[in-house]
Structure formats: C-alpha cells, structure tokens
Amino acid sequence: MSRNRRITLVFAGFVTAVAAAFYPIFFHPLTHKEEYKLTQKINRAGIHQEDVQPVGLKVWSDPFKTK
After folding, report:
1. Which domain of life does the protein's organism represent (predicted)?
2. Residue 17: what pLDDT?
3. DSSP 45-63
4. Does residue 20 surpass a pLDDT of 90?
5. pLDDT digit string (tens) for 27-43?
6. CA angle, 24 then 43 then 30, to 5°
7. Separation of CA 52 from chain center
8. pLDDT band for position 9 (50/70/90)?
9. What is the C-alpha separation between 3 and 9, in angstroms, rounded?
10. Is the CB of residue 59 less than 8 Å from the CB of residue 53?
11. What residues does each domain of the chain span?
12. Rounded distance, CA 59 to CA 47, Å?
C-alpha cells in the first residue's frame, strides 16, 4: 500500500470516529426534537426554576424570539 493511501485511510478513520462520537451527542437529538422535548418535560416535572436558580441571575430567554 502506498504511503499516500495509508495516510488517507488513517485520516478517514479519524473522521469516521469523530463523526460516530458526535452522532448521539448532537445529530440524534437534532433530528428527534419531539422525542427529546417529551423526555425533558418528564424529567423536569415538579422542578421550579426559581427554586434552583441562583439569586440575582436572570432566567434565560430566547434572544431570537420575536416579541
């Protein structure tokens, strides 16, 4: 096997490993929004943000949301 082909295969393997690691972290939730919204609704039931938010910090709001 030539040197260039070996370098290409190593680089392609690295890119594949990074893509495989990022899929469950980023791409799966991005493509399954409704499933994750339901999961967050269940997980956050009974939690009031004012009770867990440190004093003096504002509650985050969407800066891109039109008023």
Report:
1. Eukaryota
2. 97
3. TT--HHHHSPTTPPPP--T
4. yes
5. 888 889 999 889 888 98
6. 30
7. 23
8. very high
9. 10
10. yes
11. 3-44
12. 14
Tokens of 53: 């938010």
- Euclidean distance between CA atoms 67 and 62, whole angstroms: 10
The answer, yes or no, to whether residue 6 has pLDDT greater than 70, is yes
Angle, alpha carbons 60-41-47 (nearest 5°): 65
65: its two tokens = 């949301």
Residue with token string 């985050």: 60
pTM over 0.70: no
Residue 59: the pLDDT is 66
Alpha helix stretches (DSSP H) within the chain? 3-22, 28-31, 33-43, 49-52
Write phi, then psi, for 16 (nearest 5 degrees).
-65, -40
